[in-house]
Design goal:
By secondary structure, the protein is an alpha+beta fold. The longest helix is centred in the first third of the chain and has 93 residues. The N terminus is likely disordered. The protein folds into 2 domains: 142 residues, Orthogonal Bundle (Helix Hairpins), CATH 1.10.287; 156 residues, Glucose Permease (Domain IIA). Strands 1, 2, 4, 5, 6, 8, 10 and 11 form an 8-stranded antiparallel sheet that branches. A 3-stranded antiparallel sheet has the order 3-9-7, with no helix packed on it. Strand 10 and strand 11 form a beta hairpin.
């Protein structure tokens, strides 16, 4: 009897277990409701990000237009300043010529005064009285001519001074307007930075990114950091796309795919820079790693909208945190305060390295 009961119990156990896994209609409804809520929350999050992205783009367009106006004003100022310098030279030359004419006029006036004071006996003793009279007429004519030239020279100087004053006023007006444009640009850049800060990952997303960053830190080598990295599902905004210059000022000392003395090919490029030089993002992206890594120093890795990643190694440090969003050209960190520090830049997509030259053009 006991054996039969045990057999029946054993046969029925799978049924009991199966019955235990069957969800009630209430549980199914609850799961569906939670899934719909998650989808709705994700939609709202993407809508917020899209709105901030559009606002950032609008601000960026305004900043670019202001940059163009500031550039035009700077060129106008250069032209006006060059005109003022040229007019100053002309005024100095005109004053020099006037000085020469005034000296000649004074000499002529002295000569006439001498003739007028000459006694009759002295004039009679001259070769002829008529000759002396003619000489006095010539000198008098020269004085009148010089008087006219001096008057004209002074008028020219006054005219030049008037033009110089107007040009200087134009320079001051343009400079003041340019200053206003620069202040407006700073204000817009402040608003732009705030929008970018708002594009940082939410707390739950940041927690997931931090977990991935922790796992990455356990890797054995630099190349292994991104080899099997799976793209996050966070919506990635596009603001400035690509900043087509090197991420740090300097020169490339080792190119992509170039072999070293041991025959090992480079997966990225190495840039020789200067002490404390700022390092900037080459592409819009989100920070997925910002920490020291083994002997490679401080490393920052960005994830980009196209699924690629850019890795920056060799910095002194960075204030950027995992989850932060950076637009192209934004400062990531600083190079160490040492002679000829080197920055290593590597780009990967789908686990494979990509030539950074396809992302940027050295200027």
């Amino acid at each position: 009897m006991r054996i039969v009961f045990l057999c029946v119990l054993m046969l029925c156990m799978p049924v009991f277990a199966l019955a235990g896994t069957v969800k009630t209609s209430a549980e199914i409804k609850l799961e569906k409701a939670k899934e719909l809520e998650r989808i709705e929350v994700d939609k709202q999050r993407q809508a917020r990000i899209k709105k901030r992205e559009n606002e950032a783009k609008s601000l960026q367009d305004k900043i670019l237009k202001l940059d163009e106006k500031i550039l035009v004003m700077s060129e106008d100022m250069k032209t006006l300043q060059a005109e003022v310098e040229d007019l100053d030279k002309k005024e100095a030359l005109a004053r020099q010529r006037l000085s020469v004419k005034l000296s000649a006029f004074n000499e002529t006036a002295v000569a006439i005064a001498r003739l007028e004071r000459m006694p009759v006996e002295a004039m009679a003793a001259a070769s002829s009285l008529r000759a002396a009279h003619n000489r006095k007429g010539v000198v008098e004519g020269g004085r009148k001519s010089l008087t006219g030239q001096i008057s004209k020279g002074r008028e020219d100087i006054y005219e030049l001074q008037d033009i110089i004053t107007k040009r200087k006023e134009a320079v001051q007006k343009t400079e003041a307007l340019r200053g206003q444009r620069i202040e407006e640009k700073k204000r817009l850049e402040g608003l732009f930075d705030k929008q970018i800060m708002l594009l940082a990952a939410d707390d739950d997303q940041k927690a997931d990114l931090l977990k991935k960053a922790h796992d990455m830190k356990q890797k054995e080598s630099l190349s292994a950091l991104l080899k099997n990295y799976k793209k996050s599902d966070i919506y990635m905004p596009k603001v400035r796309a690509v900043h087509e210059i090197l991420p740090v000022q300097g020169k490339v000392v080792r190119s992509y795919n170039e072999k070293d003395k041991n025959g090992v090919r480079a997966h990225g490029i190495t840039i020789e820079s200067t002490a404390s030089e700022p390092v900037t993002a080459i592409k819009d992206g989100r920070v997925i790693y910002s920490d020291r890594f083994r002997e490679y120093g401080y490393i920052v890795i960005l994830e980009h909208a196209d699924g690629s990643n850019s890795l920056y190694s060799g910095m002194n440090g960075s204030s950027k945190e995992v989850g932060d969003f950076l637009f192209a050209g934004k400062k990531i960190g600083l190079m160490p305060n040492e002679s000829k520090p080197e920055l290593y830049l590597e780009i990967r997509k789908n686990g494979k390295t990509v030539n950074p030259a396809s992302y940027l053009a050295q200027k």
